[in-house]
Structure formats: structure tokens, C-alpha cells
Amino acid sequence: MGVGWFNVVQRSEHCGWLRKQGGRYRNLRSRWFELKGDQLYYFRDNNEPKTPIAAIPLPGNEVIRHPPDSGEPGKFKFEIVSGKDKEGRPVSSNHETFLLIASSQQEMDEWIQAINRIIYAPVGGGMFGRSLAETVKFEARRGGGYVPLIVSKCVDFIKANGLSEEGLFRLPGQAKNVAELKDAFNRGENPELEGNKAEVHSVASVFKSYFRELPEPLIPYDYFEVFLTAARCYEIYVDDGIAAIQKQLKTLPAPNYHLLAYLCRFLFEVQEHSEQNKMGPRNLAMVFGPNILRSGSEDPQVMMESTNLVTELISILIRKHQLFFPEIEDVQPPRPPTGGDLIDLNADSLRIQRGPDISYPDNEDDTAEDPRSQVLELENELELQQQQIKDLQSKLEQERKVREMLVLRLADEQRARESAEDRLEKLQAAMEEFCAKYGSWEPTT
Fold first, then answer.
1. What distance lies between CA 283 and its chain's CA centroid?
2. Which of 29, 40, 169, 295 is an S-S bond match for 56, by CB 3.0 to 4.6 Å?
């Protein structure tokens, strides 16, 4: 198999070394893996140019997490099990299963999450680590709004069972419960949460994980400096600061603005029970601040210097949410599908079943007859394109600055060279004048 079937241009979603079981004797070999599109390619090394040995197709397959093996410490195993296509044949023709081994628990979790995003995205799963715009666009086709279903489901559960729970959002949930809930949501399932008060901290941890694992914070990286400037303005003069914050909020992409509004309203409701849960606006801002607004820089100094200002800004957004986020219909939680696509998962495959009250011809979009859904989808598509344009403009601006810096450096070098040549000419003239006056000098023996 050559490079012809490997898309070298497509962006790699995830990459790294894993050990793979294969060959006639099922030996373990280290391979370089790259997740591109809906394929998991593997290579002998990561040198350029890379030619893949083969690829593992992901749609329709399933990832199985192996429990830790006390006999083999340090081996973190997971398996990609081949699903079945419409005719009942294995999705992967050469293998029924692919056993992979990561070097750490974190590495394994990251791989499973990245692979599940590809496998379950067609049925509404894989939202951890998926962009907010993509999630909103998908859920809009099924009657959803700007608030992802996982967010509204967790909020409803916490409101019903945990607003007075001490340490809410500060104390972690049980690791096993959190992992199971995240896996269920990532598979596109709708796990049962109601009626189990013991799960409050686990659900709260899942809720925080969703925001923490967004590819960008809720207020995107490009807005970091302008929002910090607005927060500094608030510290100097409150009215001017409020006007500056309002102005910047209006520039946010619609999905980000509406989810931020929903989150701040919910956190305000949480702090109303602060006597019991010990979580006032500032405590909540400290917990959620880095997930809402942070710099794209990894510089520790930048992160430390901005922490207090970010906390203060998020605290203001929570306390004054009514001022910054007027009540509008668009921020309401998404509605579940009614008679449309119902998700049915079993051990072998993923399939979409049509609801009993409406019939659709094959390959026809569910929302084709709904003008409102079409308009919403077009708006979402437009917002995505606008964001892409903004990203390109930002890159062009950075390249322009680099080019200007190179031009200035080139001009400096040119001036330095001309100055050196001028000094050399003067020195040469001085030497000639000296020799003409005193004659050439020769060392004595």
C-alpha cells in the first residue's frame, strides 16, 4: 500500500507511539499512529515522508478498555473491536480486533477519547474534546438549541439533587463513576442520572470535564486580551467596565455566547445556596475561570499574572448575569427528538432507528421539511465559516508582522554592512596616506 491512499494533507487529530499486537506470532511491535479523518493509520516510524503500513477503519467499530493486569504492571491495554456492516460482515476485513498498548493511563484515555469522537460522532456522541460549534450544529438537526444536551442534563440533575451539597464543583466525584458516565455520553447514550443523590459530585465532575476538554475555552483564545482589558477597566470605573464587557460579549460566536449565558445563570443559582454548599461567586469563578477564559500561551508567568483578573471577571459575570445576559429563548436547553432519530446501540454495531410517528424515505435528511431547522443549520454553517475567516485573518496578521520584522531586520543588516564598508574605505585611505608620507613599513630582523 502506497502513499496514494494516505491523505498527507488532512490534519492529524491525534498521534503518538503505541504498541500493537500483530504478525503471524502476534508479537508486540511499537508503531507510530496517526488519527486522520475516520481512519487510524500506523507506521514503522514518524520520520518524513511517512508511508503507512495499513489503516484501521473506525466508523462502526468499538473500543474496549481492558482492566489493569496485576501480572503485567505498566501495560495499559485497549482494543478496537470490529463491528458489522449492513450485510453483517466485519467492518475491518483483515482483523476482528486490534489490541493496542499505551505507556500510561493518561495516554490511553486520550487515545480512547479521540477514537470515540470519530466512532460515535454520527450518533451524537464523542462530544468530549469536540468543538462547541460542531456539537451545536449536530444537535440542531435533532431539535436542539445552543446548549449541548450533556450540559442541560447535568444541570437538571444538579438542580434537582445537589444545589445544597457542600463542596459542589470543588470535591471530585468517584473516578470509576465519572469514567463510566463520560464513556456513556461519548457513545451517544443518554445515561440515567435521576434519583441518585450519591452521584452529585460525579455528575458535577463530568460537567466540569465537558468545559475543560473543549478544544478552546468557552471564551475563545482570540478574546483573551480584550476581556482582560475590560476587566481592568471595571476595576478602575465600574460603569465603563460594564460597557466594555457588554461590548465584547456581543462579539462572541453565538454558540459560545448562549452557552456562557446559560452557565452563568446556573452558577448564580448555585451561589444562592452558598450557606450550604460553601460555593460563593468567587469560589465558583476560581473553579470555572480557566475553563471559560484562559490564554493560549503556555507561559507560566502569563497564566499566574492573569489568574486573579480572570477570577474577578467570571465572578462579575455570575453576580451580574441579568445585566449581561438578558433572557432570550435561544439559551434554553435543547429539546430531545420527538419521533425522529432514536439512537439504538448494541454490542456489535451502531444503527439509527426511525421513530414510529414519522416515516422518511431512505437517505433523506430529517429536517428537510422544517424551514426553521434549515435556517438554524445555515446560521450555524455561516458562523463556522465566519470563525474560519477570523482564524485566517489572525494568521495573516501574524504573518504580516513576521514579514515586517524580517524587513526591518534586513534593513538593519544592510545599514550595518554599508557602515562596515564605509569604515573599511576610510581605514584603507588612512593607510595609503600613511604609506605615502612615511613609506611602507617592514619589520626589522
1. 24
2. 40
Q: Which of 10, 31, 44, 172 is nearest to 99 (CA)?
A: 31
What CA–CA distance (Å, rounded) separates 191 from 184? Answer: 6
Q: Which three cell numbers stand for residue 279?
A: 460555593
Instruction: For residue 271, give Cα distances in angstroms to 110, 266, 293, 313, 324.
Output: 33, 9, 20, 16, 17
Return the C-alpha cell found at 220: 475563545
**Sign of the four-CA dihedral 147, 205, 252, 396:** negative
- pTM to 2 decimals? 0.65
If you write DSSP's letter for every residue of 313-342 in order, what string do you get? Answer: HHHHHHHTHHHHS---GGGSPPPPPSSSEE
The CA-based angle 124-390-34, given to 5 degrees, is 50
The answer to whether 244 and 233 have CB atoms below 8 angstroms apart is yes
Q: How far apart are CA 159 and CA 370, in angstroms?
A: 33
